[in-house]
Amino acid sequence: MIGRAFRSFLAWLGGHGHVVIFAVLLVVAGTWAFVKLLFEVKEGETQHFDEWLIRWLRVHEGPPWLQEVGRDMTALGGVAVMSLVTFAVAGYLLLARRYKAMLFVLVATFGGLVLSSVLKHFIARDRPSIVEHRSVVYTSSFPSGHSMLSAVVYLTLGSLLARITPGRVLKLYFLVLAMTLTFLVGVSRVYLGVHWPTDVLAGWCGGLVWALLCWLAARYLQRRGAVEQDAPTPEEAGVDTTP
Fold first, then answer.
1. Which terminus has fewer CB within 10 Å in the chain: N or C?
2. Catalytic pick from 60, 121, 133, 146?
3. What is the pLDDT of residues 117-161, one digit of tens each?
4. What is the pTM of this model?
5. Taking a C-beta distance cutoff of 8 angstroms, is the pair 117, 144 a contact?
6. Quick check: is 133 catalytic?
7. Does residue 146 carry a catalytic annotation?
8. Whose CA is closest to 138, among 51, 79, 202, 68?
């Protein structure tokens, strides 16, 4: 039974493009990295690095305006901002009458939030206490919820914009922008002293895995007609876009 399922999985991979295969490999690598980080954190192997980097950032925290920038950056990964962004995208899909796609976006985004909260609850790592917190926190530390949720939302939106935008330069721009926002949110959590660096690394890994799984699921559901197809770009539709 297991062998048959594995052969079916390989056959499914073989029937898809290199992008899908690469996404599956990233899911495997991201999951492995998350589990590896979790075990090393539990065994205390990362504590020296975590404490050193937080102390170094606090010593070199810079002028007051940079600290305010850090708080602004961290807000981009907060539940309130992420909810507003998600509902804005859902509103667009609703107006476009893509109801199934709207439901999928909502489930994928808030599913990532639930997953992050569950992981925090069961892992229950204490927040850093070696420096003063520059942001209010309520939950446990591992993984970083801001880092994970920003990866889920921004990477998903970045891939969506890249999918419907013609031209490789614009596609690359949206993907790089999504990764940059995710990076800045994660760095700001360590800069403000509310997360260990390994919390952020784990959040990035978890968010990447969840975003890729949602992308693969959306692709599968679109092929089965359970979710509306993306509108084709002019290039895909065979339209000449030259002036």
1. C
2. 146
3. 899 889 888 898 888 888 888 888 899 989 999 998 888 877 777
4. 0.81
5. no
6. no
7. yes
8. 79
